[in-house]
């Protein structure tokens, strides 16, 4: 009998979050890692550190052939004594790789859930974007480069604006880019819009508000990548513009990338939100993708 099953049970009991899926995955990963160390060195996990270990014998794995097998005896209260045996190191390495992959998949699933991507855009991927014009293909390729070069873009704090007509695929590309960055780099990404930001901050202005304005702004200033939709739309007063300016300025000074999406032209956007915001998310007008072809919504396309 191998030690892993018992180590999983004890690791889970010692974890205050034992009922969460991630805690179980972590306990399983740690148990396999402890099994592998024992199989390679004869070093027992902490739980059985004081147990005597027999000299290794020769065992055989049906897949990998002969290996050194360690064993020791452990006595649980009200149960017969069990002799624990180390497993095949190569099989344990494969198990550890699978456990690490399961943890990574769980992390990615959590990041995708927390990204704020609406149900309408759940299908959107860079791979299923339909470039109906050469400019559309160029924009898709630019988003691929952004996602593939994410560590460098994050380090340099490179932002971007996606500007142009409705129905030309801006949201589709932005969501696809966000998903790829999450899956490939496990970055924290948040997809939101101007009105959601404004409502969230204004909710703290009530006398009975449970959160402060700083708390709410931190929700938007802390992600590795923030994607803001509908920039330039429905900014009804100076307080809403001030909120947006503070948010983008904070991220700019913190070297955190921001991608903005707008149905306005670049000039209209400058008139609506000011040169300072536009220049900071486009690096003086350089980092912008223009979507100036006709809408293809309702034409059998998956554009969003």
Tell me what you see in this structure.
48% of the residues lie in helices and 14% in strands. It contains 11 helices and 9 strands. The chain has helices at residues 4-13, 21-41, 89-114, 134-148, 150-156, 170-185, 194-202, 213-221, 238-253, 266-273, 275-282, and strands at residues 57-61, 65-69, 71-74, 82-85, 160-164, 189-193, 225-229, 258-262, 288-291. The chain is of the alpha/beta class and 304 residues long. The strands form 3 sheets. The chain has a 5-stranded parallel beta sheet with strand order 6-7-8-5-9, with helices on both faces. Helix 1 (4-13) packs across helix 2, helix 2 runs antiparallel to helix 3 (89-114) and helix 4 runs parallel beside helix 6 (170-185). It folds into 2 domains: 4-111, no CATH class; 119-291, P-loop containing nucleotide triphosphate hydrolases (Rossmann fold), CATH 3.40.50. Helix 9 (238-253) links the parallel strand 7 and strand 8.
